Amino acid sequence: MEKKEMLYEGKAKKVFATDQEGQYLVQYKDDATAFNGQKKGQIEDKGIINNKLSVLFFKELEKAGVPTHFIELLSDREMLVKKLKMLPLEVVVRNIAAGSLAKRLGTEEGVVLARPVVELYYKDDALGDPFVNESHALAMGWATAEELKEVQALGLKVNEVLQKIMDQAGILVVDFKLEFGLADGKIVLGDEISPDTCRFWDKETKEKLDKDRFRRDLGKVEEAYVEVYRRVKEILA
Ligand code: C5P
Fold first, then answer.
1. Three-class SS of residue 195?
2. Residue 18 Cβ contacting ligand 1 at under 6 Å
3. What is the pTM of this model?
């Protein structure tokens, strides 16, 4: 496999073409952004941890019947993935109130939800990724009814798989964000699953082990990413 030209540079990753039909190379960066890019920084070795942690999760999800874009781990910061036609949506699944849900509904952070909540956001930096519903997604042609049903069902399935792994690692899965795309007409999970895109709290102490440490200047950011990786590796590797 040959790495070719860079196709896209996002906030946390670069995507490169390859000489393989339908396959892209994703390279994870240490750059961190928050609040729609207003806060910028670096988290040392975050790219390595997010790449390797995503691989561990993707492999487990595939075993559980969730199709993912992951093909092969190439290096510390690089993975080979299936090319997807991305839906312009972020699918957020929540088990415990935090972040924008706590703010929007006026609940305290940490309130355990009676059942998981699945939310949709329209992926658009200029608009700040607004909260939308299925009706918006259908009316705007962002996805079909079948695709929406599928991404929501897969979101809940991912939640089950992640909760099972993280429970063994002594970590609460508070919430997380997924992105899906289409390959050969089939819905496939793309992007990453990492402390950048999930809220993980220590089960005992409720200490935050995710990007909120960067967003809220809580310190020990690198340490939190390393700790999550260490605990998950112990369970899965
Ligand atoms: O900010 P909010 O509470 O809506 O975030 C919910 C979850 O989705 C968090 O785990 C957060 O890290 C993730 N998220 C993300 N990318 C975004 C927005 C949220 O990974 N653009």
1. coil
2. no
3. 0.98
